[in-house]
Design goal:
The structure is a single chain. By secondary structure, the chain is an alpha+beta fold. Helices cover about 15% and strands about 10% of the residues. It has a domain of about 30 residues. The chain has two helices and four strands; from the N terminus they run αββββα. The longest helix is centred in the N-terminal third of the chain and has 8 residues. The protein starts with 8 loop residues before the first helix and ends with a helix.
């Protein structure tokens, strides 16, 4: 078997010139047209399930008596802790 010749950059680029993207695939829905495999921007549905909510976001205001829970702080490692384990 013979060794194949190395292709130059210009030869490779000219071959790949036809690998460009085509037009996007579209699907007709009840509300209009959308891209395939994407969430419908009008309804927020994908494959019959509600993925995102469309509309104004709900704002939750904290009341005066409500408390916010904080995550417990991680323990700091000390030099003595590593000695005590031994």
């Amino acid at each position: 078997m013979s060794v194949r010749m190395k292709l130059s950059h210009s030869k490779t680029a000219s071959r790949r010139a036809h690998h460009h993207m085509g037009t996007p695939r579209l699907v007709a829905t009840k509300t209009g047209v959308r891209r395939r495999h994407f969430v419908d921007p009008d309804t927020g549905m994908y494959r019959g399930k509600s993925i995102i909510t469309i509309g104004k976001p709900e704002v939750v205001k904290a009341t005066k008596g409500s408390k916010v829970k904080k995550a417990p702080a991680k323990e700091k490692a000390t030099k003595n802790a590593s000695v005590e384990k031994k």
